[in-house]
From TrEMBL, chain A:
Superkingdom as given in the UniProt entry: Bacteria
InterPro entries (UniProt xref): Aldolase_TIM, rSAM, rSAM_sf, Sulphatase_maturase_rSAM
Species in which this protein is naturally found: Candidatus Aquicultor secundus
PROSITE patterns: RADICAL_SAM
Domain (Radical SAM core) ranges: 97-340
Molecular function per GO: iron-sulfur cluster binding; metal ion binding; oxidoreductase activity
UniProt entry tagged with the keyword Transcription: no
SUPFAM superfamilies reported in the protein's UniProt record: Radical SAM enzymes
Keywords: Iron, Iron-sulfur, Metal-binding, S-adenosyl-L-methionine
Protein name from the UniProt record: Radical SAM core domain-containing protein
From TrEMBL, chain B:
Key word Hydrolase present: no
Spans traversing the lipid bilayer: none
GO molecular function: catalytic activity; iron-sulfur cluster binding; metal ion binding
Entry superkingdom: Bacteria
InterPro entries in the cross-refs: 4Fe4S-binding_SPASM_dom, Aldolase_TIM, Elp3/MiaA/NifB-like_rSAM, Radical_SAM_PqqE_MftC-like, rSAM, rSAM_sf
Name the record gives this protein: Radical SAM core domain-containing protein
Pfam families: Radical_SAM, SPASM
Keyword Iron: yes
Alphabetic keyword roster: Iron, Iron-sulfur, Metal-binding, S-adenosyl-L-methionine
Residues covered by the Radical SAM core domain: 97-335
Amino acid sequence: MQGAQLNAYRFSTESGNQYIFDNVSGMVIPCPDDVYYLITHFNDHEKNDIIGELKTTYNHKDAGGSYGYIETLIRNGFFYKDPSKRTSPVINEHTVLHTPSSALILIATEKCNLRCKYCVYSDSYPLIKSYSNKHMTFDVARKAIDYYMELHKERVKSGFKKAPAIVFYGGEPLMELGLIKQVVDYCRAKDPKTVFYITTNGTLIDDEFIRLAIENSIMVTVSLDGNEYEHDRKRVFKNGKGTFNQIIKNLTDFQTEKQKQGLEQIITFNSCYDSFTDICQVVDFFEEKRDMFSPFSVFLGEINPFYTNYYDDLDDLYSRGLLETDRNSLTNSMSKIRARFLDDIINDKTPSSTMYSIFLGLFFLKNRAKGIQPILNNSCIPTSKLSVDPDGRFYVCERVNQQFSIGDIDRGIDFDKVNRLVNEYVSLLHENCGTCGFSRLCEVCFMHFVRDNELVFNQEFCEKRRTTIPKILEMVYSTLEANPRAFDNLLDYSFHEAYEVLIK
Amino acid sequence: MKRHFRLNAYCYLVDGLSKGCIYNVSTGDMISIDEDKLNLLNKCESNIPLDRITDTELGFLDTLVGMSVGMYYETPMYVERFYVGQHPAVEMVAPSNYAVGNAFIELDTMCNFDCVFCKEGDNTLFRKTGCKRWARNEGSTIRDIDQWKDILGQLAKLNCQQVTFVGGEPFLQFSLMEKLLAHAKAQGIYRVLIYTNGSLLNDEILECIKKYNAELNVQVLGSNDDTYRKITGVSEMHSKVLDNVSLLASDNVRYTLTFLVNRLNENEIEDAYALYSPFTNPNRIRLEFLYPLPHNDFYSTKFLGLMYDKTSSFGKVDVNSFCHHAKYHNCYGHQLGITAEGDILPCIMSRKLVLGNVRKNDIVSILKDSDYEQYQKLTKDEIDKCKQCSYRYGCFDCRALEMSATDYLKGLEYCNLKSALRSDEVLEDLVSI
């Protein structure tokens, strides 16, 4: 155990009970003072001294049994690790064929008919390049698909169970409906089981797309931030006019057609919030629209607060009296909705799916993977998702599509580039997260470190996670103390298809 | 101080019909407990305070603390159980890829022995995994080396870690096997196990075994040439097998001996042990049996009790095996069998569960388009007579044997716990309190 350091985090629940999260195994165990004493002194004190201390200070009758308990855990590799030891993952042809997911993301266009206030291409994110008029030609798409389909075939031979997945992304991908139709036809001919996903702002959904989406069971994700006020203050046309009414009209047509045909085709919503959002109103909006949207699910996400002046602009708007809510709206409404959610699950009531989607992270924390930590932790393995820009360059993710190309449609995956990126990323994790007591709970991935043309450790993100992860641990284990089965049966089937692409 | 008691994180409490079992997955121990103690622990696990506990009950809990199996707490605690890998709830959403840990390959079913209980072409099964002269069709037997290489290539892509050659007598096909061993290694499959009757070893075969670091499972049928002749119809085979095993020992080849107990050799176990143990690790000598069903005249009535004694199959249950047994069948969960004619089976002995044929489809397509996953997930929670047994995650299930005896996929014949579960007996073979 020489060089090994404690790699764990002790926390309390609302009842005052103490637990310890073991960052090595991913386990949480009860950790009253005597257990904590044992864990922290185990490596540098003699057994008899520890047992003596347990008897005198902690009034233990059977200190030997308690010692044996912690000894068993530590001998099984719990709590301690040597932070100087590091592994250097290598991504090669074999790794690429054994990824847990597989998707090709086509950046159909970099054009967009909207000018959303928080778009990464907007002036709010000065470090990221601006909108462009680039769009993908079918020739580029075809080459990307050919490459991906071959890769996918090899993945299937290596045990991958799911169908090939094509994701249309933008800009606004429906500005290239012609390309989308060509791609769908081409993929269907290559593999009829191909599944399609599209993320759209919803303003261009028309009869032609509705037909295409229904005929090909395209999983449509619409960016809709909630009620009219909430949505329109952020998501606007180039002329500044809100997009809410147009989207609702289009969605009404889409949903009506599906209902008319008796289809249970799920629709999902990406809903972004900031500190001025009243999250209760967002939840109420989706629940009020349940009859129209069902079956549906909502993914709520915080607007990226890093390297942006978006939040400064909000403060400015507020000071000029142009916002109906204040900067505490999110905090206050989140407390309310959280109380409602926790009350529901503690009392074995199924919360609304919208509410549940906000707190999806709690479910995944409770049901986290345990045992050996994956080398890249919670980040996906590069090449499992292959994002292609209009110029035919490959990227690790649709959110990191301007820096760090990892190959292109003509030459395929460039493993040197992939491994340079991975090593750079792992070095940052090693340097900055090596001693963190809950790093395996952190959802940090490549996109958090991208800055200009290099990867840089994101201190702001880290500080935020260091504040929130302990709170989430406290929340989850307080809930489990009140009802050990609180998180069971929360995933109903309608979520599954939508989550497939999200789970790395 | 003693208001609450909880089992430690590495202990699973499993309910049975009238008994419980604590699985300590850190030590591998199974601790059998009677109904009263099970009820007490169930209350403790629900955080019910120890207000009205008797001295006897307290003594029991103290014993568990002394065994590092549980702890007292002042307040109600949430104690989660240790598992490895993805949580089942998440796995439902994101299923893991197909992977074949161990592939059993049968190059042929021919044998140089003519055992009385293994008539050529008779498909009646009353033994666990091992040799068997299954009905064969020379015309459809795969002889093409390239076809076998292709099969190995497909298995390697499925992360196959081990190939196990069975027969018949696999060394009758030594020339083919040797080429396949080279190909398996080239494909990254490094672990090789070969089931053999031990009679055909020679210098060339020994060199090959050593070169590929293969392990042998040698089946022993008696302690003298006379018994061997009565069983196999071949003379001087005991002496030959004994000599060959001593060669394996002197050449440091890894091997296990399986004494196949039957009516003709049931009185020779001790003699055989005395002959082999001087040069064989006693832990690597084990007993297997011919079983009574379907009805036959070859099983040993003397050892009938042992055949039904499930506790003898109990092994150490560590966290990996506990998690595996809770989700998958102990064999079907991670292995495949490939017959000489190319049939793919969840187990080489489960001849009725044909998933497909490699001459018609590739392995992945066969797994996808068959009932493979259903068999893979055939845990004891699915077996009618096992699902209420508290030992269900610690005992070995030979589905091929049970299915053959009961003619039912989920049947169970060879278990004496069926009655024990309805009585108050405590199993002596377990660590019991």
